[in-house]
Structure formats: structure tokens, C-alpha cells
UniProtKB/TrEMBL annotation:
Keyword Hydrolase among UniProt keywords: yes
Protein name from the UniProt record: Gamma-glutamyl-gamma-aminobutyrate hydrolase family protein
InterPro entries, A to Z: Class_I_gatase-like, Peptidase_C26, PuuD-like
GO molecular function, one term: hydrolase activity
Sorted UniProt keywords: Hydrolase
Pfam family, one: Peptidase_C26
CDD domains: GATase1_2
């Protein structure tokens, strides 16, 4: 693809306060996965933009990435209990949900990771559980913080492909229906939004991947973190390449528009 037609992907930032100073931030590993494996140019989307400004961005972009984060989606967004209203990022909530709605309306490819999956579910009317490990037969879905970072992000449980969505297709392109992924989340999907289809579940029933039913392009999300080992892990690479291909196709479609 010509250099001047390289796909540009917007990445929603987290709002963080360090030493009394506010920052809009994104972990570099997400940007590396986009640039090196998906083959796209990442551009950061700061918090605080108006809906009109976000639409201007997404008209210019060819994809949207919703990253994971330490913060949780505010329960006020889906009618959840205030008890789970800890570690919030209200700027991120507003920016992500508005960006999701705009991207889907414009047919811009979209990929959500961890918090991004939860944002996608909430944006389309679903709800979240504040502790996905609660309940009989549920496994532990949080990382062991005593381990080195690479081991925290190592595969820890199996997921099984379901349906025919984008992530399920990526799994089956590896000639299997089940793979192992990492798990670093306390929250997860409680009630699935009507506009989403399940692409994969963990063996204890937790929804691990979804696709947008009526989307005309790649619009999907995963609960695990494929960005960490995007070079080494076959499934992670497959997902980022599929997202990248959709973003490049979006470039071509825009070039053909009158």
C-alpha cells in the first residue's frame, strides 16, 4: 500500500493524575502492536473532545482501538451498584462510548481490549459484573501481581470459539477451536448487549470475545490482552493483522468515494 494511504487508527487515552498533574496516556505496547503487527499508524485521542470533534477525528481515521486500563467503567453508565465504583475514569468513559457510537455509525473498524470490551458492551446497552470470579465454578480471572510482568500476561486459561464472528474466525484460522489466553480482569460482561454476539467463552462460562452483529467491517473485542505478546503469540498476531487488514480496506473504500 502506498505510504500516503497508510491506515491511521485512533487510540483512546486514559486520564491519569501523576504528582497533581493530569496526563492523557496510553501504554506503548498497544501502539507497538498496532504499528508492528497490524501495520497501521496509531494516533492518540485525548479525553475531553466534544462529540463533534470525535466525529471529525473518526471521519479522518481508518480504525479505532479501545485499550485496557486500570480503571473500570462507571456503574452509572449501566445501572450498576455504587459499591463497584472504584478506580474510575469518567473522561475515558465519555470519550470511549461516544467514539464507539460514532465509529459504528460511520463503518469505521473497531477493536476493544479488556476495558474496551466492557465499554463496547455498555455502549450498546449491556451491563457488567463487578467481580466476574464470583459464582460457583468460576475460575480466578485476575493476575498475580507478585509475578514478573511477562508472567502476569502469560496464558492462564482456555477459551472456546463460538459463533462465526471476527475473533472466532481468527481462532479457527489456527486450525483449532480452543486456545489459551491470559486473564487480567476483575470485571466482565454480566448481560450481553443485544447488538453483540459471543465469539468465545472461557471454560467457566465467562464471555471472552464478542463481535458487533450488524457491523459491515471488523468490530470486535476481547477480554484478554493480545497486545502484550503480539509478536510471539499466534492468536494475538492473527487478531491484530485482521484488524489491520480491515483498517487498510477502509482506506481503499474512502479513496473510491466520490
Amino acid at each position: 500500500m502506498a505510504e500516503d494511504s497508510r491506515a491511521i487508527v485512533g487510540v483512546v487515552c486514559d486520564r491519569q493524575t501523576v504528582d497533581g498533574v493530569d496526563y492523557d496516556a496510553v501504554r506503548v505496547r498497544y501502539l507497538e502492536a498496532l504499528h508492528l503487527t497490524a501495520g497501521v499508524v496509531p494516533v492518540l485521542i485525548p479525553g475531553g473532545l466534544t462529540d463533534k470533534e470525535l466525529r471529525t477525528c473518526l471521519l479522518a481515521f481508518n480504525g479505532l482501538l479501545l485499550t485496557g486500563a486500570a480503571s473500570n467503567v462507571s456503574p452509572s453508565r449501566y445501572g450498576g451498584p455504587k459499591a463497584c465504583a472504584s478506580t474510575l475514569d469518567l473522561d475515558r468513559d465519555r470519550t470511549s462510548i461516544a467514539a464507539i457510537e460514532t465509529a459504528l455509525s460511520l463503518g469505521v473498524p473497531l477493536f476493544g481490549i479488556c476495558r474496551g470490551l466492557q465499554e463496547l458492551n455498555v455502549a450498546l446497552g449491556g451491563t457488567l459484573s463487578s467481580d466476574i470470579s464470583e459464582g460457583e465454578g468460576r475460575g480466578v480471572h485476575v493476575e498475580d501481581l507478585s509475578l514478573p510482568r511477562d508472567l502476569q500476561y502469560a496464558p492462564s486459561h482456555a477459551i472456546v470459539a463460538e459463533g462465526n464472528g471476527h475473533i472466532a474466525e481468527c481462532i479457527r484460522r489456527l486450525n483449532t477451536n480452543s486456545v489459551s489466553v491470559n486473564t487480567l480482569h476483575q470485571q466482565g460482561i454480566a448481560r450481553l448487549a443485544d447488538g453483540l454476539a459471543v465469539d468465545a467463552r472461557s471454560v467457566d462460562g465467562v464471555i471472552e470475545a464478542v463481535s458487533v452483529k450488524e457491523a459491515t467491517t471488523f468490530a470486535a473485542a476481547v477480554q484478554w490482552h493480545p497486545e502484550w505478546f503480539h509478536v510471539e503469540d499466534p492468536l494475538s498476531g492473527e487478531i491484530f493483522r485482521a484488524f489491520g487488514e480491515a483498517c487498510h480496506l477502509h482506506v481503499k473504500r474512502k479513496m473510491l468515494q466520490p
